[in-house]
């Protein structure tokens, strides 16, 4: 019998999405107060389908309307972590993050409550700007995407990323 059935503790994960948006030869990055430069994305809301959540998150964080074109991978953080901002004092569950390559459709760059800067960069400059190891891994996988999906598992312990596995699926 599964452990959660015995303990009556339902398994809980956040489902999040992130998109690397291309406009010509440049990609969209946002800068957040907490993580620095990254690609737009966030948690899919209850009752929301994944693609709508992806488009919403990109627009909310950057002012850009984008359309997903390719599914790149699944990135799973196995451990919980402390909440921040309005979630301070809470423990956040593990996350399953789905990543997509997207194309620019419309819109102008705008900052938001979640982004203090928004900009378009060449892929090489984008890689240089991103400092968080888990985000850099996702972005490098997206920039080097060859049609094989990634499944990457990691833990974030004491602000350090420990990668556990990285599998390419044909």
From TrEMBL:
Q: Report the InterPro entries cross-referenced here.
A: Nudix_hydrolase (IPR020476), NUDIX_hydrolase-like_dom_sf (IPR015797), NUDIX_hydrolase_CS (IPR020084), NUDIX_hydrolase_dom (IPR000086)
One Pfam family of this chain? NUDIX
Instruction: Print the keywords alphabetically.
Output: Hydrolase
What is the superkingdom listed in this entry's lineage? Bacteria
The segment(s) forming the Nudix hydrolase domain are: 12-144
Q: Which PROSITE patterns match?
A: NUDIX, NUDIX_BOX
For this UniProt entry, the molecular function terms from Gene Ontology, in alphabetical order, are:
hydrolase activity
The UniProt entry's sequence similarity note says:
Belongs to the Nudix hydrolase family.
The name under which this protein is listed is NUDIX domain-containing protein
Instruction: Please name the source species.
Output: Eubacterium ventriosum
């Amino acid at each position: 019998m599964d452990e959660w059935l015995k303990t009556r503790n339902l398994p809980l994960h956040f489902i999040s999405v992130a998109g690397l948006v291309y406009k010509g030869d440049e990609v969209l990055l946002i800068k957040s107060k907490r993580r620095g430069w990254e690609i737009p994305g966030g948690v899919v809301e209850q009752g929301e389908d994944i693609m709508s959540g992806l488009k919403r998150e990109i627009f909310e964080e950057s002012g850009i309307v984008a359309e997903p074109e390719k599914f790149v991978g699944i990135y799973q953080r196995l451990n919980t972590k402390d909440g921040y901002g309005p979630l301070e004092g809470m423990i956040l569950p593990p996350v399953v993050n789905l990543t997509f390559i997207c194309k620019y459709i419309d819109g102008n760059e705008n900052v938001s409550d979640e982004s203090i800067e928004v900009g378009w960069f060449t892929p090489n400059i984008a890689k240089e700007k991103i400092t968080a190891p888990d985000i850099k891994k996702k972005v490098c996988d997206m920039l080097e995407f060859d049609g094989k999906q990634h499944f990457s598992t990691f833990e974030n312990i004491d602000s350090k990323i420990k990668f556990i596995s990285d599998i390419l699926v044909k």
